[in-house]
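Subject: Predicted fold for IclR family transcriptional regulator, 251 residues

User T.R. writes:
Posting the sequence so we have a shared reference for the thread.
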Amino acid sequence: MLNTEKSKLKSARYTAPALEKGLDIIELLARQHEGLRLKDIAANLGKSVSEIFRMVTVLEGREYLKFDPLTDRYSLSLKLFEIASQNTPVERVTRAAASEMDQLSKQINQSCYLTTRYENESIVLLHKDGPMDAVISVRLGAKRPLTDSSSGHVFLAHAVDDSIEHSAGFTAQLKAIKEQGYALTASTLLSGVEEIAFPIFDKEEKITACLVISYLNYLNDATQDKLAAINLAKEAAARISKRLGMPQKSN
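User M.O. replies:
I've generated the structure tokens; pasting them so everyone works from the same file.
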């Protein structure tokens, strides 16, 4: 009898309407970079304004949402990102990478950033501007499909039993990236910018993050040449991996 009751409990679908409503609001606003007015939030969720007003008020009070009185729009704050950054694996890798990235950006006069993988996207965890007056900046929390960025290619190249199916040509490209040790691709967002990404490994020798250079060809030739930048970034990525406990290979 006891086992039967447990089975029923496991198969039952529990609901928490208020919680689900709050999550629906957060997920909706995550896709709306300009924010939405209260009535538009309600319309998108198929709810009345009165149904979501209290939930929006609570989320704003807890600082998950911010309200712009000039446009009457609600949008997501950075609180979710801050909470995620306090997660131990994320906090460890950003702490290990921060000083190395700062040094690297100054050595090569280029901006760099750190990403991690979440499902089929790469997410920016940390960014360091280069010392030049004109730099490429990447928004913290920015997401890109794995197939659409250099860091995504590196994550896919080192993936184990990945569920994503690739064409024969792309599979060969990923194999070459793994053998080479980094990915170099033209940016799919900005003309004239190249992305150079290097894997960062943890103590279990699994890829946990990517170090990426946003490489600009400055006209005054004030930066390290690309090959020198690649070598310096490769060394920085290795030191970050070492800080995370990756076993060092003996020569």
